[in-house]
Design brief:
Largest sheet: 8 strands, mixed, barrel
Shape: globular
Distance between the termini: 37 Å
Helix content: 10-25%
Order of helices and strands: EHEEHEHEHEHEEEEHH
Number of helices: 7
Strand order of the largest sheet: 1-2-4-5-6-7-8-10
Radius of gyration: 17 Å
Oligomer: single chain
């Protein structure tokens, strides 16, 4: 079983004990953007440090219903280009959860489903697949869409149970099970005294850009995937901007 972490600017790169994570953390997801207007200010350093410990690396986009889909997609693409996300890296993740700002924020709703499906499709067309981060509860608030179940799931459920609750009982690819000082052997849940890092377990093969994983596209370089002819060959949708 592989263990991983996910990072945003809330975890300052210089405050993390990277030497202690080296060898224990096998994959790292770094936040690229929060909606359409906030680029995570630590994403490039997090990606550099994560690559430095030979972890598999990926990006995630925290979706905001209040921001235009095009704006969120364009910002994500600019970050992916800046950190040179490409073949061999993890396919991007799309974060579907309560939007906390402005307080009290906005909860997931059925009206989010259409834009999220389109955004998941764009990520998949460009990078070969997308991982969807959510919970069983938020899948219900979304209206229990079946399209979501066709993607690898990254399920958050902070419990010491042997398996998490998951949308429609689908086995997730990644389980986020703990928040606290990094300790893969610790039980799931929150360490309220020291809530430092989200802990994740890979319960299945992690989908990688340019590799066949759970029915994703055949082995091609990301640049080829972006080429309209290659996309047409695999039956993808509309041509993508380069």
């Amino acid at each position: 079983m592989e263990f991983g972490i996910d990072l945003s600017h809330h975890q300052a790169p210089n405050s993390l004990a990277w030497s202690r994570l080296d060898g224990s953390v096998k994959f790292v997801f770094c936040r690229a953007n929060y909606g359409g207007f906030v680029r995570d200010r630590q994403v490039e350093e997090h990606m550099r440090r994560a690559r430095g410990i030979s972890a598999k690396v990926g990006l995630y986009l925290l979706y905001r219903f209040r921001d235009a889909l095009e704006t969120q997609w364009d910002l994500f693409r600019s970050v992916a280009d800046a950190v040179k996300l490409g073949s061999g890296d993890l396919v991007p993740a799309l974060n579907i959860e309560h939007d906390p700002l402005p307080r009290p924020g906005a909860d997931v709703a059925p009206s989010w489903s259409g834009p999220l499906e389109e955004l998941a499709g764009r990520i998949s067309e460009t990078f070969g697949n997308t991982v969807l981060y959510t919970t069983q509860r938020e899948w219900g608030l979304l209206g229990k869409p079946t399209w979501l179940l066709r993607h690898p799931l990254w399920v958050a459920h902070y419990t010491s149970a042997p398996r998490p609750a998951s949308p429609n009982g689908v086995e997730p690819t990644i389980w986020q099970y703990r928040v606290g000082p990094f300790d893969p052997l610790a039980a799931g849940g929150f360490d309220h005294a020291r809530p430092e890092l989200d802990h994740n377990r890979a319960l299945g093969p992690l989908p990688v850009i340019g590799k066949v994983v759970n029915g994703s596209l055949p082995d091609e370089h990301l640049d080829d995937l972006r080429d309209a002819a290659a996309l047409a060959l695999f039956g993808a949708g509309a041509p993508l901007a380069s």
